[in-house]
Design goal:
It is a single chain. By secondary structure, the chain is of the alpha+beta class. It has 2 domains: 58 residues, Alpha-Beta Plaits; 152 residues, Leucyl/phenylalanyl-tRNA-protein transferase, C-terminal domain (Aminopeptidase, 3-Layer(aba) Sandwich). The strands form 2 sheets. An 8-stranded mixed β-sheet has the order 11-5-10-9-8-7-6-12, with helices on both faces. Strands 1-2-4-3 form a 4-stranded mixed β-sheet, with helices on one face. InterPro entries: Acyl_CoA_acyltransferase, Leu/Phe-tRNA_Trfase, Leu/Phe-tRNA_Trfase_C, Leu/Phe-tRNA_Trfase_N. Keywords: Acyltransferase, Cytoplasm, Transferase. Its EC number is 2.3.2.6. Belongs to the L/F-transferase family.
Length: 236
C-alpha cells in the first residue's frame, strides 16, 4: 500500500494496483485522460475511473472487489414469480446511448451524477469500437431500465444500471448474467458492493485474487457475434 497518490500525465502508464490507498479504499491515481487506449489499459489491470464534477479524473482499484460469479446469481422466490409473469422484453446492444443517459439521470437519493458528459462520450466511443455494451429492458416499447459496462476476455465490467419501473435493472442483471454464463464468461464485476448487490449474490474477492483471474483470463477470445444486437432469451 502506497502513501502517495500517483499523478498521471497523458502518456504515463498506471502504477500497480496493489499500491492503491487504503483510505479512500482503492484510490490509485489522478489525472491522465479518458482515451480508448487508457480505458482499455485500466480495465485490463483491474482499474476503473470514478469521479464527480469539479474533480480531476480519479482511478480506482478497491480491495476487496465486488463481483458476481455467474454460477452464484441469487434469484429470490418473489423475483422468480416476477420474471415468470413479466411483460418486459430484454435486449442487448440496441440502445446504448439511451441506457447511459438513463444511468446518468438524477436520482432521488443522489445529489449529483458521476457520469459526466466526458464520461458518456468516452464510453460511447468504446461502444462504437465494440468494447462497451448495454442491456435494455423494455415495457410497451418504452425503455424501463438497463445497464452498461465494458467486456474484455471472460469478464463483463459493470459500470452502472438504472430503472424507471419495478425490477427493471434487476431483470437486466439477471438476463445478462444468464447470457454471459451461456457464452463461457467467468464473472461480472460490480466494483464496489452494496446491500442490493449482495442480496442478489455478489461476493467480495480480495484484490489479489481478482487480479490473478484477470491475468489468467483477460486474453480469452470471446465467441464471434456474442455482442451482436439481439433479444435475450428467457433467463431460466
Amino acid at each position: 500500500m502506497s502513501q502517495e497518490i500517483f499523478l498521471l500525465d497523458q502518456s504515463e502508464k498506471f502504477p500497480p494496483p496493489y499500491l492503491a490507498q487504503e483510505n479512500p479504499n482503492g484510490l490509485l491515481a489522478v489525472g491522465g485522460d479518458l482515451s480508448q487506449s487508457r480505458l482499455i489499459e485500466a480495465y485490463k489491470n483491474g482499474i476503473f475511473p470514478w469521479y464527480c464534477e469539479g474533480e480531476p479524473i480519479l482511478w480506482w482499484s478497491p480491495d476487496p472487489r465486488c463481483v458476481f460469479l455467474l454460477d452464484n446469481i441469487h434469484i429470490s422466490r418473489s423475483m422468480k414469480r416476477a420474471l415468470k409473469k413479466s411483460t418486459y422484453t430484454v435486449t442487448l446492444n440496441q440502445s446504448f446511448e439511451n441506457v447511459i443517459e438513463g444511468c446518468a439521470a438524477p436520482r432521488a437519493k443522489e445529489a449529483e451524477t458521476w457520469i459526466l458528459p466526458e464520461m458518456k462520450e468516452a464510453y460511447l466511443q468504446l461502444y462504437k469500437s465494440g468494447y462497451a455494451h448495454s442491456v435494455e429492458v423494455w415495457h410497451n416499447d418504452r425503455l424501463a431500465g438497463g445497464l452498461y459496462g465494458v467486456s474484455l476476455g471472460r469478464f463483463f465490467f459493470g459500470e452502472s444500471m438504472f430503472s424507471t419501473e419495478p425490477n427493471a435493472s434487476k431483470f437486466a442483471l439477471i438476463y445478462l448474467s444468464h447470457y454471459l454464463k451461456q457464452q463461457g464468461f467467468l464473472l461480472l464485476d460490480s466494483q464496489v458492493g452494496n446491500p442490493h448487490l449482495y442480496r442478489m449474490g455478489a461476493i467480495d474477492l480480495p484484490r489479489q485474487e481478482f487480479l490473478a483471474l484477470i491475468e489468467k483470463h483477460i486474453d480469452w477470445q470471446q465467441p464471434q457475434q456474442v455482442w451482436q444486437p439481439k433479444t435475450l432469451e428467457d433467463w431460466s
